[in-house]
Design goal:
The chain is mostly beta strands. Helices cover 0% and strands 41% of the residues.
């Protein structure tokens, strides 16, 4: 029985004629960046979740996952990204944002990608998500925020 090894054939550059390596973007598993308890939410109010220093500025794409285990639905979500080095603008929502008036069902989840909403790829390090609550305050559960960042 013969034994052999196969090696990938390098891609040859059109202009240089030299072998080139292919850059394949890498994404990690979802990372939990925030957890917000039922007690954080009030009926007919919005809750501003400020998560500082949780993002990498060099990410080229991002996906956010909002997992809602509250016993009430979130009625709306507004995302703002910002950078903590600009302290004047930290912790305030302004500029470009992503708004979703559909919210997230009780015991449901939603995902938001920078491919669909380019502002989510902003090269800052922090995030604000303003979450709306309906007429009834939740009594149990939590909201968890995850991010997947794509790097070259």
């Amino acid at each position: 029985m013969s034994e052999f090894s196969m090696f990938p054939v390098p891609v040859v550059g059109a202009s240089s004629g030299l072998p080139e390596t292919e850059v394949v973007p890498q994404a990690a598993a979802p990372t939990l960046i925030g957890t917000f308890a039922a007690s954080d939410f009030s009926a007919s109010q919005t809750y501003k979740a400020v998560m500082t220093g949780v993002l990498h500025r060099n990410a080229v794409e991002r996906s956010f996952i909002i997992a809602n285990t509250l016993n009430e639905a979130l009625t709306s979500l507004d995302f703002w990204l910002f950078d903590t080095t600009l302290s004047t603008y930290s912790n305030t929502g302004g500029g470009q944002n992503l708004s979703d008036s559909n919210g997230v069902a009780s015991n449901g989840y939603a995902q938001y990608t920078s491919e669909a909403a380019g502002i989510l790829a902003f090269h800052g390090d922090s995030l604000i998500i303003q979450m709306g609550m309906g007429a009834t305050a939740p009594t149990s559960g939590e909201v968890q925020v995850y991010v997947v960042e794509l790097f070259h």
